[in-house]
Amino acid sequence: MGTAVKADAESAAATPSLEPALARRRPRPSRRGPGRRTLPYTLIAPAAIVIFGVLAYPLGMLAWISFQHYGLKELIAHQGDWVGLQNYTTLLADPLFLRVVLVSVVFTLVNVGLTLLFSTLIALLMSKVSRVIRVLLASGLIFVWATPVIVAVDIWQWMFDYEFGVVNYLLTQMRVFGSLIHHNWFENTVQGFSVITVIVVWGAIPFVAITLYAALSQVPDDVLEAAEVDGANPWQVFWGVTAPMLKPIFLIVTSLSTIWDFQVFNQIYVLLNQRPSSNFFTIAIYSYRESFGVTQYGLGAAIAVVMVLVLIAVTYFYVRQTLQTVDLAT
Amino acid sequence: MIAPGTATRVELGAVARSRSRVVNQVSWRRRLGQSGYDAVGLAVFVVMLFPLYWMVATAFKPGRDILALTPKWFPAPFTLQNFQDAVARPFFFDDVRNSLVVVGATVLISLALAFLAAMAVARFGFRGRSAFVVLIIGVQMVPLNALIIPLYLTLDRVGQTDSLAGVIAVYLAVVLPFMVWTLRGFIANIPVELEEAAMIDGCRREEAFVRIVLPLIGPGLVATAIFGFIQAWNEYIVAYVLLSTNSKQTLTVWLASFTTNHGPQWGPLMAAATLTGLPVVAFFLLIQRNLAGGLTAGSVKG
Fold first, then answer.
1. How many C-beta atoms surround the C-beta of residue A160 within 10 A?
2. What value does the CA radius of gyration of chain A take, rounded to a whole number of Å?
3. Does CATH place domain A95-329 in 1.10.3720.10?
């Protein structure tokens, strides 16, 4: 308990720029006394211990293991062999790893881009449709949002089934790609990733669209009308007025989507029946395979560290933005 | 000489006439545009919801209608056989029980801890408060997938890899940050004067929390409890890695192993998916407002 609280106090000192924002709405100091001063620490201690113990400490341990040779023998002995940077140099020399990183980055860019594009369009659409359709659309989105990922993967697996899948049937009927009867989507990596993208984007749209719509409805009407009176067309109104006002929220949903899509695991792993071929490895799957598939925990940890480092850069923007909005909101 | 007033009046009349023409035109065009938007909205609704419809429809279809080269769009004739088959699969009831134990423990413990921490963040100024806020916002972004290895190794060392307790500990840490953050908002909305009045009347500070604040944040507690339920019920990878014995797994692990172990039997699989998703959807409908608010509250300058 003492350590967690102390660590908090130390990092508070390390981040002085955040202090004034929060200090402004500090409740008035009331009665003195020793209990008064320790009470808040007693209150946050249990939560801080759990969060620190289960998330922050393992994060440190992850970095530690990534410098060790940690296989099955070491797992049984509970003791790794220190090998310095060897895991990282192995990775850099590994063509599969470089490919996996590239695949993950491209996959993330495509998925975040499509999610934001469709969500923005749906949010704008929701502000234009009549009331009944809006309620219908919103409740539909909420149903999709609520669907557990594993359930969603099973549904899409069935819909894209090569033999009796409804997608192959519909596409064949629409004659877009010719006959797709008995077409297996997972023989080709690009097509397989397209299916995975459909699943990820379908699941991601509701949160982003509803958040953007909520933000959109907070943009004051008179500002939009003023722009229209000044002769701006809808396109100009969106890029000149709406988009800049929604910039903070766009930043938040973009960073969250990036964080979620870069570590996609369930959609690929379960969709490919828990045996994805190396063509379908993303960084999370590769890390999992190295550690639990071939029991190279040290190497798996090094891959995970790379993943964390990339995400920290993205998280930085999110945390900064959230702290600013906290200051504004209260 | 024309009085300025008259001229104005004439102009206004002309403007009014021409404007009414414009308004007529615009409203006609608007109505057409409106039904266009509505049609697109309806199409989006159908596309987004179709997969869920297809799951439920498949779940109620007899086997020969599921394996039809030309899909049958409606589940007629109608059967409950798929649900019976799904439930009869090995370990279904074991895994439902495990899921309930994990979810129940996660929700109850996290609710208690989150309430205490939220109280501190909302009601006290103390050294390290902003660091704690950074911690709870920051760890919501920690990629859980990356932590599987150290979590597994740590729990392996203390002999908790194949036990529900280890999974519960991980879920607590995952849901706590959001819960603290959401409850903080609810508590901040209760006027601090209420507690002060109680304290003037002789309540101790702790008593004021329990007697004044706790009853007033009922809705907040319900919302965060359901959030914890959904997270714990849906989680897959931690449970999959930590729980290896079939009878000790949770429902999502059971569902994900459905095709691997038995080959795709789409009817029972869709029935099982429907059963797994149902409680989540039901609870989700109750709290969806708080979810969007929790992550992005007040991000737009009004």
1. 22
2. 25
3. yes
Single-letter amino acid, residue B228: G
Q: Please name the member of A26, A136, A161 whose beta carbon is closest to the beta carbon of B45.
A: A136
Q: How far apart are CA B259 and CA A273, in angstroms?
A: 7
Predicted pLDDT at B154: 87
Secondary structure tally for chain A: helices H, strands E: 18, 2
Contact A83, A170 (CB under 8 A): no
Shortest alpha-carbon distance between residue B2 and chain A (Å): 31
Asked if the C-beta of A117 comes within 8 angstroms of chain B's C-beta atoms, the answer is no
User: CA A285, CA A265: separation in Å to the nearest integer?
Assistant: 6
The pLDDT value given to residue A195:
96
pLDDT tier for residue B4 given thresholds of 50, 70 and 90: very low
Best interface-test mutation with A: which of B35, B141, B291 has the largest number of A CBs within 10 A? Answer: B141
Could B124 and A145 be called an inter-chain contact, meaning their C-beta atoms sit closer than 8 Å?
A: no
Q: A303 and A290 in contact (C-beta within 8 Å)? A: yes
d(CA B129, CA B125): 7
Indicate yes or no: CB of A161 within 8 angstroms of CB of B266.
yes
Of all residues in chain B, the one with the smallest CA distance to A204 is B48
| A83 CA: distance to closest CA in chain B (Å) | 18
Contacts of A51 in chain B (CB under 8 A): 135-136, 139, 173, 176-177
Q: What is the pTM of this model?
A: 0.82
Where are chain B's structural domains?
A: 4-59, 89-294
> Which B-chain residues 35-74 have CB contacts (< 8 A) with chain A?
37-38, 40-42, 44-45, 48-49, 51-52, 54-55, 58, 66-71
Q: What is the largest distance, in Å, between two alpha-carbon atoms of chain A?
A: 80
What is the distance of C-alpha A241 from the center of its chain? 28
CA A92 to chain CA centroid, Å, is 25
H/E stretch holding A68: strand A68-69
User: Over the stretch B113-154, which tens digit does the pLDDT of each residue have?
Assistant: 999 999 899 888 888 888 888 888 777 777 788 888 899 988
Query: Which residues of A are less than 8 Å from B269 in CB distance?
Result: 154, 158
Whether B220 and B206 have beta carbons less than 8 Å apart is answered as no
**Complex confidence, ipTM:** 0.82
Number of helical (H) and strand (E) elements in chain B, helices listed first: 14, 0
Distance CA A256, CA B89 (A): 38
Cα–Cα distance between A149 and B252 in angstroms, integer?
Answer: 9
Find chain B residues with C-beta within 8 A of A164's C-beta. 66-69, 71, 266
CATH code at B89-294: 1.10.3720.10
Burial (CB count within 10 angstroms: exposed 0-12, middle 13-18, buried 19+), residue A63: middle
